[in-house]
Automatic annotation (TrEMBL), chains A, B:
Positions in coiled-coil regions: none
Species annotation: Streptomyces longwoodensis
Database matches in Gene3D superfamilies: 3.30.70.100
GO molecular function, one term: monooxygenase activity
UniProt protein name: Antibiotic biosynthesis monooxygenase
Pfam family, one: ABM
Domain (ABM) ranges: 19-92
Keyword field: Monooxygenase, Oxidoreductase
Entries under InterPro entries matching the protein: ABM_dom (IPR007138), Dimeric_a/b-barrel (IPR011008), Jasmonate_Hydroxylase-like (IPR052936)
Length: 125, 125
């Protein structure tokens, strides 16, 4: 999961905790042949996972890429993690596309959102 | 916390769970006067928090900014959240620098890292 050149520019909202997130940070290799197509397919697939809530992505040109996926519960994340096509893409990623990456899977305990025009999400204690 | 033009390009490592992370996603306003200085000061301050583990940041030009801060435990995150100078910077952020943002605070249950030259971090089940 990654590049969203076409996505509207707005952070994913704050959901009611508890929910899960997966932080995927990566540095890519020089040769990104096939990455864009696979990435688009992964975005299509993850949206079909029951309990998938959304995704944030940013990439500094020539630098770090950070993707955060949000899921309603651990089962939703497990469904995504064990998807056969996703697993094949992960293998391809290790072989071809990623110089290095880190994955952090975490349970959200608190969330908060701010918007210049509207304040949403659970209030911060 | 945000821009790291000088940071080495490598994802923060996978630590031994449990640990905490804070995902801060934002879209900035046009006028970023004073942001760079405050951001540099915040990076200096957060590094002094006992239990601070590191930070990942990426920003798509003209798009979303994603910052992830890692902390050993909830106390470390609370110390950072309640720091007086950080609080003042947060207020300034809402007034001047952010069009919108979302904060997700979460406890890491699982982590994994990959590097082309070396595989680090706890093994994935």
């Amino acid at each position: 999961m990654s590049d969203h050149p076409q996505a509207p520019v707005a952070p994913v909202q704050a959901f009611e905790p508890p929910y899960y997130l997966a932080v995927f940070t990566s540095v890519k290799t020089e040769d990104q042949s096939g990455y864009r197509e696979t990435n688009a397919r992964m975005e299509e697939l993850v949206r079909k996972i029951p309990g998938y809530l959304g995704m944030d992505h940013a990439q500094t040109p020539g630098g770090l890429s950070v993707t955060v996926g949000y899921f309603r519960d651990a089962d939703a994340l497990t469904a995504w993690r064990t998807d056969a096509e996703h697993r094949a893409a992960q293998r391809r990623g290790r072989t071809d596309w990623y110089e290095s990456y880190t994955l952090h899977v975490a349970k959200v305990e608190r969330s908060h959102a701010f918007s210049r025009t509207d304040s949403t999400g659970p209030a911060q204690p």
